[in-house]
Predict the 3D structure of the following.
Amino acid sequence: MVTDNLMIKLVPEAQQQFSRRLSILLLVELNEVIGRRTIADSLNLSERIVRNEIEQLKQLGFVTQSKNGLSLTDNGRVFLSDIHRDSKNEQERLVLQEQLKNKYQLRDCIVVPGDATVNQDTIIHLGQALSNILNRVLPTGENILSVSGGTTLSKVVSHVSKKVAKNRQFYVVPTRGSGSGDLSIQANTISHTLAQRLNGETLNLYIPEQISSSSQELLLEDPTISNTVSLLKKSNCLIYSIGDATIMASRRGASAKEIDRIKESGAVGEAMGVFFNAHGQIVYRLARIGLYIDDLHNLPCEVLVVGGSSKALALSAYLKMVPQQTILIVDETLANLVLKEDTL
């Protein structure tokens, strides 16, 4: 699928032509019937340019011409209706961004169209938004990115623009070791994918995600593991997501007893190895090696990427405890649900 931005880069004159034809159609819509000379005067264009554009619009079936002037066809009215709707939707998303940003005291918020649960295009939009944020907040030169696992990020990082790597060198480090289940959604795999996109290097944590305290101490004596964890703590940007408590407990390799405790605690979501209730209070922690939820307050930047209406309850709860330096990237459906918290 070719996006509007890509089309403009390939055919830059198309943007000017689009704007000119749209202005003509809007004038026709406003006046119902309008003459060519009036259009030229109103838009400060030569009659020759206006005549050429009108001929194109007639061939496209958007306008018809009579002795009284130009008027819209049914196709022209439908096209302008789509334009007005898209413009309204964009304005609504900007309002959602400001509402979320102000309500939860976020550093920034980006709302993309759609629902990531049902629409693949929304995943692409999330990837584009993440690219734009990284381009804006990351310095040139060396950067250390820490990346969590999860279904959402496993899809989104594949759509991060390679242009983010311009004038930057990247180390990409997973926030934790390996869990059980699908390898494609684990932090090690996602960090490797992102490092490839950004022409960078990745360091893996080849350790079980959940281990006992005594095992942690032994493993941290290994120079490879301790160096990777040390690099994690120095990361200047964390990219992570959140999930449903029950699903994440199973995915993290929690025992049946632990899963029962997590359910009994009233947990609704999980992030960075901790489970929290609907009030944004931590109710359970899993032992792990890697980046902890407490480390988030010491990092200069965190980008939280969440998509899909199914995560509404978890996101609504997490935003009550989120660090203020967080940048939220979220889809429109989820943003609306979170702002209507009383309906969750």
Notes: The radius of gyration is 25 Å. The first helix runs from residue 4 to 10. The first strand starts at residue 63 and ends at 66. The chain has a mean pLDDT of 86.
